[in-house]
Amino acid sequence: IANHPSLIDVVILISLMPNADCIVKEALWHNFFIRGVVGAAYISNSDPEQLMAACTASLAEGNNLIIFPEGTRTRSGLTLNSFQRGAANIALRAAVDIRPVVVNCEPPFLTKTMSWYEMPDKRARFSLRVQDPVTIDKWLEKPDSVTLEARQLTKILESQYRESLAYE
Q1: What whole-number distance in Å separates Cα of residue 1 and Cα of residue 130?
Q2: How many Å apart are CA 27 and CA 131, to the nearest integer?
Q3: Ramachandran class of 140: left when φ > 0, alpha when ψ lies in -120 to 50, beta otherwise
Q4: Are strands 125-130 and 101-106 parallel, antiparallel or unpaired?
Q5: Which residues fall within 8 angstroms of residue 36, CB to CB, at 6 or more apart?
Q6: Rounded distance, CA 42 to CA 128, Å?
Q7: Looking at CB atoms within 10 Å, which of 79, 101, 127, 141 has the fewest?
Q8: What pTM was computed for the model?
């Protein structure tokens, strides 16, 4: 999973990660300019059941899955949006660990609040910090429902990201 400060951080992540698939919002599948690219290495989030099946199949094939738990680009600076539970649900249902990656872009570039033609005064520099994996074994041992476990795991992941970004 990764935070999402820029429109192009996904390109950087995919370029560095072997066999990467990425979840994208359904609207991009209907965008005339990028729908061809999106179909190559992306999984649509349009239907939850199909999404879960596609993610589980991708992971079973040995692929890596890039998920932005905020669900969209970060609105401004390092202020995270609240995390959605999808990443935790996928990890728990597919029984895979989560590898957090903290992405930083200075100065801000192609953010949610910037137009695509707005350029910063100096060249944008991206940095990625790959963190230790979050193992899900303890979550799978608990007798509670996957929905409750996903909710708790999501809170922990969001808290870790907020802490990590506070020290950037």
Answers
A1: 10
A2: 31
A3: alpha
A4: antiparallel
A5: none
A6: 21
A7: 141
A8: 0.84
Summarize pLDDT for 58-86 with one digit per residue, the tens: 999 999 999 999 988 887 655 789 999 99
> How many CB atoms are located within 10 Å of the residue 39 CB?
12
Cis peptide before 18 (omega within 30 of 0): no
Q: How many helices (H) and strands (E) does the chain have?
A: 7, 5
Q: Is the pLDDT of residue 43 over 70?
A: no
Across the strands, what pairs with 7? none
Burial class (CB in 10 A: 0-12, 13-18, 19+), 73: buried
DSSP 8-state code for residue 134 = B
The pLDDT value given to residue 165: 84
